[in-house]
Amino acid sequence: MAQKFGGAHSPTGPQTGREDTPALKPVNKFRGRKVHKSDIRTKLLFLLPLPLLFSGIGEMRAQNATGMVAEFGALVILLLAAWLLRDGLQAEDAYNSRKIARPPVIPRKIFATALTGIGVCVAAAFGMKASLPAALVYGVIASAAHLFSFGIDPLRKKGMEGMSDFETERVAKVVDKAEALLAETLAASRGIGDRRIEQRVETLAAAVRDMFRTVEDDPRDLSGARKFLGVYLRGARDATIKFAELNTKTQDAAAKAKYESLLTDLEASFNTQRETMMLDNRTDLDVEIEVLRDRLKQEGLKAS
């Protein structure tokens, strides 16, 4: 879909003397989250099994139905393993970027390791015409190499020291749902085809992720942030989806202005609430410091 580009010299961009189109500050869309590292090895795993496609075609021409099915089956298994590995690495990155997180529900990397061994075993047995023991050895070696290169999925809950399992689970569940709503909102904004709108949503997303980190730092803030991470985010998602649908049918300037105003209000609300939570945390810290000072005086000690 074509996208509108705005700028200082664009008819639709910010212009001097116009208050209805304020200039937007550049926003780091990756603020508050860890950037996924692109690994060339995962991309190669999608390419390495492709020779099995040609060998399978050769078996088909030779009218060897068993060999054809085996070659194509090995190809599908290895491609499925590469796909699971890619998703598993993305899930692991998301797990590592958060202070409080649950392990992935599906251990994709472990399944990818097992499927890689099975695929190599089948390919060796029918493609290389290796004996069954030799094919099994090839499969075990492939699984071991895969495990050594990529490891296994996170298997334990990750929380902060001093937090109970209930608190960890509660925060992780709320943040997981909020992350899903935020991802749907960002996806809908990209379908609008307007750079300015997409940037505004990215700015809102950065403010939301800052609140994620604040809640993870102190789970006591969850009660105050629950409405923002649930009701407000769900409303932002629904409004973005509806505006995207409307924008594909008609370029309604009034609807666009209302939607941008909504984004501005939401961003301000998230930032204000986060500042309030940070202020409460600072107040709690000051109280603890005063209590410790009084205790030192009672014990006959005085801090310099």
Protein topology:
Blueprint: H1 40-47, H2 51-61, H3 65-96, H4 108-126, H5 132-150, H6 165-190, H7 195-217, H8 222-249, H9 253-298
Helix pairs in contact: 1-3, 2-3, 3-4, 4-5, 6-7, 6-8, 7-9, 8-9
In summary, what is this structure?
By secondary structure, this protein is mostly helical. 70% of the residues lie in helices and 0% in strands.
Number-wise, the strands total 0
User: Strand portion, in percent?
Assistant: under 5%
Rounded to an integer in angstroms, the radius of gyration calculated over CA atoms is: 27 Å
The main β sheet shows up as: none
Estimate the helix proportion, in percent.
55-70%
Count of discrete structural domains: 2
Distance between the termini: 66 Å
Task: Explain the overall architecture.
This protein has helices at residues 40-47, 51-61, 65-96, 108-126, 132-150, 165-190, 195-217, 222-249, 253-298. Helix 6 packs antiparallel against helix 7, helix 6 (165-190) runs parallel beside helix 8 and helix 7 (195-217) runs parallel beside helix 9 (253-298). The model is unreliable at 1-27 and 31-36 (pLDDT under 50). The longest helix has 46 residues, at 253-298. The protein is mainly α and 304 residues long. It is built from 9 helices and no strands. The protein has 2 domains: 40-150; 165-298. The protein is 70% helix and 0% strand.
Keywords:
2 domains; 304 residues; mainly alpha; single chain
